[in-house]
Structures are given as structure tokens and as C-alpha cells.
Amino acid sequence: MNTITWRDRLRRDKTLLVMTLPAVGLLVLFAYVPMLGNVIAWQDYSPYVGIADSPFIGWDNFVRVFSNPQFLHAVGNTLLITGFQLVFFFPIPIMLALLLNSVVTPALRTSIQSIIYLPHFFSWVLVVTIFQQIFGGAGLVNRLLAQAGYTGFDLMTNPDTFLVLVTSQAVWKDAGWGIIIFLAALATVDPAHYEASAMDGAGRWRRMWHITLPAIRPTIILLLILRLGDALTVGFEQLILQRGAVGPGVAEVIDTYVYYQGVVNGDWAFAAAAGLVKGVVSLLLVLGANKLAHVFGEDGVYRKS
């Protein structure tokens, strides 16, 4: 069997390579070139003198990051919100996809999909405003309770229920959009498998457990790995919009803390060090979760060589 040299492959695929050049150029310009700015994490950086003239101070900024109790508190809040949403948010798109897959009528399925997809296109400003109009102190729920003679509540300014609030907002906004990948995975299942299992006496739950779930298991594991990679990243816009109402004690996460330290307070070097630590930890989480997927026989993000 003749092997194709890289020159032959280059000549054969030159049209496709040219088509990808604009996307690669944008990726390099906006994703990789800005990484060079991470050098300020090792500097006493000032935007007034620039990177070239800012003095190097070694690892002092990283020492400040790990010894800063406010940063550690932000890390704790981030992990708490991520863990809570991983348990109560991540399974919802899977369940919605399974329910929609069981809808026989195409017109009804399309209507349901359109309705649950719609909130994804709302901005976080609009989402928070809608929740404020419904669950705020002067919201719809409180007015109805007052008319019925009950004492109202203000869910939007209660720190004790903030975790449930942000998770509910995320579910309403993005759960419907998250089912797209799972529906695509379910579309690859051969209907003959369901027919054969039904003829053998398998009920609806048996077919789901032995046919449907194994078919989407690689997709579930892949998205779970990617979600773990974003464990230190939660909705920046969503939280910064509501931080003033509930206070930084429960709403301060790594992204908002870096924003206030770097952009608002002007401590750019400290913020860069904190962001770099976050990026490295996120990379390690992805690699670790991917390695665990290989142990259980799944491909994960990339196939094991």
C-alpha cells in the first residue's frame, strides 16, 4: 500500500487549507497573540509605562494570589456554584433530549423545541430583568401573595437563596439550547434496535437504559469533561449584574474578582496572575478528566494513542 507524502497531501488539500486560513488567522489574532500579555503576571505592570518598561518582580504576584483571602473566598464561591450546577443543571438537557426524542409527532416536537430554545437568545440583562419582575420585592409573585393575604419575599436580594436563583436562571436560559447535541447523538441510533428490543419484550425503560443511554454516553462524557474544564468559569455577566443586590459574599467568583482587581482597581499584574492560575488549573482539570475517560474506555476530548 503506497503512502502519501506530506507534499502530496498538501497539494491535494490546498483548496480546503486556503478556506480555513481566515478562521485560523482570527484564532491566532484574538486567542493566541493575547496570551503573550500574560508576561505582566511576572511584572510590576503599569499601563502608563507599558510591558517593555515595567520591572520584573518574579513570582511575587502569584504569592499575593495564593495568600489573598478574598481570592480564596472567590475560588470557594466559584466551586460551590459550579458543583451545584453540575448536579442540578447538567442532567436537565439530557432528560429534555430523552423526552423530546420520545415525542412521535414531528410538528409537536418542533414546537416544543422552538419554545425551549428561545431563552438562549436573550441577553443576561433581559433574563435578570424578567426574574426581577417575577420574583423581586415588587414582582408578580409578591403582588399575588399580597392580594391573597400572605407575606411576600424578595428572592432577588436574598443571599441564602442566591445559589438556587442563579442555577434557575441558567436552566431557564440554556437548558433548551443544550439539548441540541444530545438530539443529534440520538438521531444516529438505528430505529431497528428499538424495534428488535420491543419484539423481544423490552419496555420503554429497558429500551432507554440499554439502547438510548449507551448511544449518547460518549457525548455525555465529552460534555462533562468540557464542563469540568470550565469549573472555574461561571456566568460573569449573570453574576456581576446581581452582585450588588446580594453582596460579594455569595456572588464574588474568580472572574468578577479579577475584573474588580484588574479593571476597576487597576492592579493589572495581580489580576493577570490570578487569571493565569485559573487557566492552568482548568487545563489540568480537562487533562485529568480526559485521562479518567480513557480509563473507562471512552475517547474523551481526544482519542488515546
Describe it.
Helix content is about 70%, strand content about 0%. With about 300 residues, it is an all-alpha fold. α7 packs antiparallel against α10, α10 packs across α12 (about 205-230) and α15 runs antiparallel to α16 (about 270-295). It is globular and about 75 Å long.
Gross geometry: globular
Major beta sheet summary = none
- Give the class from helix and strand content and strand pairing: mainly alpha
Q: Count of DSSP E strands?
A: 0
First-to-last CA distance:
22 Å
Query: Element order, helices and strands?
Result: HHHHHHHHHHHHHHHH
Considering DSSP H and I runs of 4 or more, what fraction of the residues is helical? Answer: over 70%
Average pLDDT figure? 86
Report the β-strand fraction as a percent range: under 5%
Radius of gyration: 25 Å
- Note the total helix count: 16
Uncertain runs are: none
What are the salient characteristics of this protein?
about 300 residues, mainly alpha, 16 helices
Which secondary structure elements does this structure contain, and how are they paired or packed?
Blueprint lengths: L5 H7 L1 H19 L17 H4 L6 H7 L2 H20 L2 H11 L4 H12 L6 H12 L4 H8 L14 H25 L4 H9 L4 H26 L6 H11 L1 H4 L2 H11 L3 H28 L10
Q: TL;DR?
A:
This protein is mainly alpha-helical and 305 residues long. The chain has helices spanning 6-12, 14-32, 50-53, 60-66, 69-88, 91-101, 106-117, 124-135, 140-147, 162-186, 191-199, 204-229, 236-246, 248-251, 254-264, 268-295. The longest helix is centred in the last third of the chain and has 28 residues, at 268-295.
